[in-house]
Specification:
By secondary structure, the protein is an alpha+beta fold. Helices cover about 40% and strands about 25% of the residues. It has 3 domains: about 110 residues, PAS domain (Beta-Lactamase), CATH 3.30.450; about 70 residues; about 150 residues, Heat Shock Protein 90 (2-Layer Sandwich), CATH 3.30.565.
Amino acid sequence: MKVNPVAAIPSPSACLWLDDLSTAVLVTDEHLKLLAINSAAEVLLGLSRERVVGGQLGHWLRLDRNLVSQVQQVLRLDQPVTLRGRALRPLRGAEFLADLVISPLRDEDSPGRLLLELTAIDRQQRINRDDQLRQQQAISRAVTRGLAHEIKNPLGGLRGAAQLLASEVTDSGLRDYTRIIIREADRLRSLVDRMLGPSSLPRREPVNVHEVLEHVRGLVSVQLPLGLRISGNYDPSIPEVIADRDMLVQAILNLVQNAIQALGDHGEIQLMSRVLRQYTISGKRHRLVARLRVRDNGPGIPEEIRERIFFPMVTGRAAGTGLGLPIAQSLIQLNDGLVECNSRPGRTDFDVLLPLEGEP
């Protein structure tokens, strides 16, 4: 969504309407002193407006000489400039690629003001990746349901035949064999049911996300090895989400158990909560989103399976089933959210993203 470059902004307090835009917007004077930024810019740069307004743009967002000359050209010619695919690095954040539009704000009372629009290319790539992930998982679920139907029918017949055989034979050794058949048939049926994921619709109600995180932390704390530590780092301003509490608990528990298995006997797990503004989940933009993060400092997810970890039976561990992450994703998607993953050696983040109805 583009901002009208000839619109006048008489004062920073009048810039509140910019918060309704998904594009990151910054307003400066002719000396590149920041006068206002919107919520999307706060999220993109990882900086609060209370901290940056009044400071120099070049201090909070590192500018190369070419970019400075482009800004000076806009001031001199009074004409907007569009820059594609520029690498930008905030003072407190990681470098990212963005399309940048620099426009003059033609205000007779306050000449020389500039409006900068930043559209992160990385963000659009993430949205496209999320859409692709949802489509792939929908196909995977359809295939899994068909496969489960083909497996469960003969399993039921196999189990029934073993029960009939057990009632007929008198040899105790043969009865042991029938019990093995019945037990393994039950195990396979349970595995297929787990592959299918949740079978019921969520029972939605207001849920305190921090109560969920602390509940999971309490559950796993009693079984942690001595060399493992789990801690919490929460934003207390997050309001309640409308979701199924039991589903949230199970999803977070699956993510934490996955982190425990990745770490082994030594390491640290952090449970974190933050509010994201103007965030897109599954193609829909939300003004506020709760991000619940499970972070570990383990070896990271092997690169060859990183793009497939939310598919059933995909795992990097010899003893793993590859079902915990797909089930967590299904549970969160049933609550209109999404689970995202970013991993590298030394840090793996699983982010549970849930839309927020209320204001923080």
